[in-house]
């Protein structure tokens, strides 16, 4: 499937998820990131990977967030559990130690770091710089959004959306191109001002004409 079509479907699925959840379901939303590489996703902010690198004795590091399968199973089963942040995910930290660093002390500081790793279950693994560069240099993004509720009393409903990218920068670039395309079409209609993605007709994001979209997707 061409990249533009993938991006268009990504936007449509996201909008449909939001609208269907608000219109048809009356319960809570739970978000699960299966493999989220925080450093590549939030490039302009202080990320979990950067937070580890600031610890004395750390030469380099990567951090990944994983969903807890048992929690996802409860949500998919319609149990709608009350969850705290630490119930949703666990953290994986892959760390290269500086010469002479104390691994026990580095691990303690990582696990006790507020807002980043406490109160999450956190696993710390020490590797060489060569291993880190070879095995952890990619920037994947893999996430699931699950909305669970009822269409009417006693009738359960579940909406699930997943995105899996080997390269989060590639996916982000596709979204930016689609947004620029929508801005161009708004300008052609002399519509100006600030818009959120909810204000944009999905057809404006696609490289296809309205006639092509109706023929291919409807």
From TrEMBL:
InterPro entries, alphabetized: Meso-DAP_DH_C (IPR032094), NAD(P)-bd_dom_sf (IPR036291)
Gene3D superfamilies: Dihydrodipicolinate Reductase, domain 2
Meso-diaminopimelate D-dehydrogenase C-terminal domain residues: 45-167
Domain of life of the native organism: Bacteria
Annotated protein name in UniProt: Meso-diaminopimelate D-dehydrogenase C-terminal domain-containing protein
